[in-house]
C-alpha cells in the first residue's frame, strides 16, 4: 500500500471537503459552532493505531454506516463517553437522557454526518454514493475497528486510517469519523479527481 | 514470585507459565484461543484475525500469528517443545459479528468463519475444546489466570462478567 505525496494530498482534500460539510451539519443540528482539524491520513499497524489514536480497550460509542453505490466502503463515527453525552445533550437539550434516546440521537447524528460527507464527495468525484442506515454499538474500540476492516475485506497488517477530528468550543471533541473504503476505491476516487 | 500480566496483541500469540496471567483485549470477529497443560501450568494464548492463510502465501511478509490455520499449529508446537508430555486443552473466545455485518461474497460472516476454522484446526491437533464463549455481536476481553486452574474471565461491555 503506497501512495505518492500528491495522491495523499488529493485524499486529504476529499476528506477535508467531506469532513467540512459534516462539521457544518453537526453545527446546524446542535446550533453551536463545531470545527474540524485538518484530516489525518496515516498508514498504521493496529498496534500503532491503538497507541496513537484510541486504545483498544477504550469503551466507545461506534456508529457504523455502510456506503453503497459506485464507491463502496463504510463510515465509523467513534465517540467517547463524554462527547456522546455532550452531543446528545446539545441535540435534545436534556442531560438526563435514557440510554435508548441517547443511542437514537447518535444514530441520527451519524446519519446526517455521513450523508453530508457523502454528498460533498459525490459532487466532487461525480459518482453516486448512498449510505445505509447507521447502527450504533457501545463496545471496545479494538473490537469495533478491527472487525470493521475485516468485514470490508481489508486484511493487511497495516491499515490506512482516514480520520477527521472535530472541535467544539476550542476543545477537542472526543469524536472521530473513520472512512474505510473497500479495496480499490481510493484509486477510483483519485482517478475521478484526475490524480 | 513475580505475578505478571502478559498482554497478547492483535495478530500475535504469547506463551507463559503460572502464576502469570494472559490477557487479550478487543476481540470482535477475532478469536482468542487458549491452549494449556494443567500439569506443567503452561499456556499459550493466540489472537487471530482470519481463518485461512492460504490465499496470502504469496506475500513476502506473512504474519503467521494472524491466521487460525498457521498460528495455532505453531503455538502448539512451541508449547509441546516446552511441555513434551503435556495433555493440552483449549478454550476459545470471540468470533462475534459486530454490527450484524452482511457479507455478500461468503454466506457466513467472518466471525463465524473464524470459529469454524479454529475448531477445525484444534480438532486436527487433537486438542479438545473444554469451554467456549463465541458468536453474538459484542466485543470481548479475555483474561486467563494460569494460577487459578486457567480460569478465563470474559468481559463484555454492559454485561455481567462470565467465567469459563
From TrEMBL, chain A:
Keywords on record: Chemotaxis, Hydrolase
Cite the Gene3D superfamilies for this sequence.
CheC-like (3.40.1550.10)
Q: Where is the CheC-like protein domain?
A: 7-43
Question: Does Ribosomal protein show up as a keyword for this record?
Answer: no
Q: Which InterPro entries match?
A: CheC, CheC-like_sf, CheZ_family_phosphatases
- Superkingdom to which the source organism belongs: Bacteria
Is Hydrolase a UniProt keyword of this protein?
Answer: yes
Q: What is this protein called?
A: Chemotaxis protein CheC
> Which organism does this sequence originate in?
Periweissella beninensis
The lineage is: Bacteria, Bacillati, Bacillota, Bacilli, Lactobacillales
TrEMBL record, chain B:
- Hydrolase as a keyword? yes
**Pfam families reported in the protein's UniProt record:** CheD
EC number(s): the record gives 3.5.1.44
| Reactions catalysed, as given in the entry | L-glutaminyl-[protein] + H2O = L-glutamyl-[protein] + NH4(+)
Q: Does the keyword Cytoplasm apply?
A: no
The protein's UniProt keywords, in alphabetical order, are: Chemotaxis, Hydrolase
Cited HAMAP family: CheD
- Family membership: Belongs to the CheD family.
The record describes the protein's role as: Probably deamidates glutamine residues to glutamate on methyl-accepting chemotaxis receptors (MCPs), playing an important role in chemotaxis.
Q: What is this protein called?
A: Probable chemoreceptor glutamine deamidase CheD
Question: Which species does the entry assign this protein to?
Answer: Periweissella beninensis
Encoded by which gene?
A: cheD
